[in-house]
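Key result, reporting period 2: structure in, sequence out.
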């Protein structure tokens, strides 16, 4: 009988990636205008998600599920080891 020792359900990992603007500098006027525009959108449309060209969502994992049963062998892939077998 193989008993489940580890169960993972709906595992997700999201990174928010910031993109740099094309312009070399931002003036105080531009910073105030961008902040005011963003604040206005959040106040008048609080439930609506606005696209932000400076930030992007990157899903490394999305809704991953798995089980490891007693006696199973898995290969661990990470920067800390070189693919050693976990018993």
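The corresponding designed sequence is given below.
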């Amino acid at each position: 009988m193989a008993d489940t020792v580890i169960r993972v359900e709906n595992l997700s990992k999201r990174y928010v990636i910031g993109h740099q603007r094309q312009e070399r500098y931002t003036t105080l006027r531009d910073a105030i205008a961008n902040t005011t525009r963003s604040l206005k959108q959040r106040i008048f449309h609080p439930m609506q998600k606005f696209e932000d060209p400076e930030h992007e969502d990157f899903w490394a994992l999305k809704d991953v599920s798995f089980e490891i049963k007693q006696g199973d062998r898995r290969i661990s892939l990470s920067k800390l080891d070189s693919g050693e077998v976990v018993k």
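Residues 4-86 form one domain. The beta strands are 4-18, 55-69, 74-75, 85-86. This case is discussed further under Risks and Mitigation.
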